[in-house]
């Protein structure tokens, strides 16, 4: 039978129990209550959340071997209030792990699908401490950026703040709209820790004889200024160049990843020799390809919207069904005297700049 790991509400680390999923939802809640020593033995007051903060209400929503958090509603909520109107703008004091926060109920319920919205919704009244502040057994350091995000819609964090901790807090409370920027923040931190600097790269190149082939597979080079460097004869397959400056870089005989659907948006690829490259369906949105040699390149269905292709050579390039909306093709070479022509059949040239480009024989 299918098993899952269940954890008690309120812990960042899950030191929970492995539970066999029975035949009915009621039996599952009862087994969770038994394993986690929850006050209600029947599990009737339990609510189940996954690691993304989403609430589950049936066995069909459970995935094999996933981790679930069990919320004992009897510990968080008192009885339903009588028909008393609740003011969304009312000020609320929160006691989060011993730290007091002041905010409005409207802020707390801003994400309607979050656990906070359910806790401070109209049907329930959360437990309070002796001062009247609502009790939340969470880490205040990680809760504060989440509360600020609900207030302003912007994620603001100091460099010393642990993004992974805030991410776990957002997952717990089900504030899903902040997960993507937190993931990007964590990713950027990892890339910064793993990537080389321009100085380090230069030192590596100077230390190696020109006749020695370097292996650079899988390197993190995102955002790095590699302009004017000699990177020829190096194997760069599987390396990450996102946001890097490759302007006037020598990539002669370099082995680049040639996959369909590459993410190359915003890259500075100007003055490079990329002839015969296979980058079908790749994303070059906003990339700088000015004076780049793309002769015979395979760029079918590529996204070149808003790309700078001024004076680029595209003789024999296949741009069939490519998106060139808003691209700058001023002075681009699309045909040579020998009859080698670019294929632009089905390409989107809306608002593209074609001034002084040689496209008289190109297939449009």
Attribute tags:
364 residues; alpha/beta; 5-stranded mixed sheet; elongated
Report, as a whole number of angstroms, the end-to-end distance. Answer: 60 Å
Shape: elongated
Largest sheet, order of strands side by side? 2-1-5-3-4
**SSE arrangement, N to C:** EEHEEEHEEHHEHHHH
Mean pLDDT: 78
Count of extended strands: 8
**Uncertain runs with pLDDT below 50, 5 residues or more?**
77-86
How helix-rich are the residues, as a percent range? 10-25%
Structural Rg: 29 Å
Query: Beta fraction of the residues?
Result: 5-15%
The largest pleated sheet is described as: 5 strands, mixed
Structural class assignment: alpha/beta
User: What is the count of helical runs?
Assistant: 8
Explain this structure to me?
This protein is α/β, with parallel strands linked by helices and 364 residues long. About 3% of the residues have low confidence.
Secondary structure elements and pairings:
Blueprint: E1 3-8, E2 17-20, H1 25-35, E3 46-50, E4 55-56, E5 67-72, H2 73-76, E6 91-96, E7 99-104, H3 105-108, H4 115-119, E8 134-136, H5 140-152, H6 163-173, H7 179-194, H8 198-207
Parallel strand pairs: 1-5, 6-8
Antiparallel strand pairs: 1-2, 3-4, 3-5, 6-7
Helix pairs in contact: 5-6, 6-7
